[in-house]
Amino acid sequence: MITFTLFFACAQIAPFESPARGLEFFGKINADWAVIDADSGLEAATGDYGNGAVLRRARLGLMGPVHEGVDLKMTADLAAAEIRDAFFDVHGIVDQGFFRLGHFREPMGLVNQTPSHFLTFMERPMSSSLFPSRNLGIAWRREWKQELATFTIGIFRESNDPGESIDDGSGNEMALTGRWSWAPYHVGEGDQMVHIGSSFSWRNPDAGMVQFDGDLGTTIGPSLVDTGALTAEQVLLLGADVAWQSGANVLAAELEYASFDQKSGDRPTMIGWYLEASHFLTGEARTYKLSRPAFAPPDPAQNWNQADGIGAWELGLRISQLDLDDQSVAGGTGRNLGVALNWYLTSNLRLQTNVFRVTRDGEGDANVFAMRFHLDF
To answer: Would you give the DSSP letter of residue 24?
Structure first.
């Protein structure tokens, strides 16, 4: 329904006799494989892990201007059969900033705002699951390009994969979400910089229920930690993030916090964090994209070819933790220590390899070897 509605709105504001207004067609494919060796004690707590493969993403989209001051982005994931992005950016209503309307990512966290094809690892750290993904909403955003600063505030309504949100009598599913970021120190383009940011969200949960979980570093297999569905009346999410870049090196850290009221009077607290470092062995430097903000991968200095081009090679290290145990909630505490080796054959063709050592306190460990073939266009 949301797809047809936005297409209809697009037709109303853009003269039909002039369809070519700079719209761009894009897409991405992620094909994943994983080999998992888990302790029997861990599998008794989480479910069985097996080796497998999955078409993680098969996305097609359209983006660009449809009218003076109006930009469109629409993305569908054929692998998951769901709407991802479907929104308009409207400029010129106020002197500064712009409004975004539709189905899009809530402005929470650094890694949650980072597109999947920007990530050093195949998946985001398990701690990031405390924050929401895409929902229906309206937000106002302001960017200060010279200072490399952003501020976003929005009202959202929790929605399902098709982009629907319908009252069921047990909650209004509304959220107020905001984020600011700033690079107080930056020299050149990817030479030296420091990024800081923080986020918040005050939420009435969908149907008066919440659930938090975290995976092993791959979507193949059951979650490592999981609270199951819990009653909740109000949810508060908070986050703080920091990053440093020096040429080919990037270091990032983030703290995620969630608390919620239960009818019993309890107010459990869930806490997650990660620390991640990456280095391009071939000397390239990531680019800081203010529109997210996020660190985008570079074009290889030399594309791979059979003669002498080796592409770009990146090494990543990450440790993350998610604690879902507090008061009456027993979702488990998990940790993930991972190494990534990425081969960028070209700017849009990549082979990713991840190795993880995963632990759930009191239950057991697992070793994970995962690979991804990535193509975007």
So the answer is: E
Residue 362: Cβ-neighbour burial (10 angstroms; 0-12, 13-18, 19+): exposed
CA-angle at 141, arms to 135 and 144, nearest 5° = 145
Whole-model pTM: value is 0.89
pLDDT score for 301 = 93
SS3 content of the chain, % helix, strand, coil (to 5): 10, 55, 35
What is residue 272's three-state secondary structure?
A: strand
Could you report the per-residue pLDDT of 83-121, keeping only the tens digit for each? 899 999 999 888 789 999 999 999 999 999 999 999 999
Q: For the chain, which residues make up each domain, given as ranges?
A: 2-15+32-376
Which residues, including other chains, have CB under 8 Å from residue 182's CB and lie 6 or more apart? 147, 148, 149, 150, 195, 196, 197
Q: Is the CB of residue 230 less than 8 Å from the CB of residue 211?
A: yes
**Bridge partners for 300 per DSSP:** none
pLDDT tens digits for range 199-248: 999 999 877 889 999 999 999 999 999 999 998 989 999 999 999 999 99
CATH 3.30.470.20 fits 2-15+32-376, yes or no: no
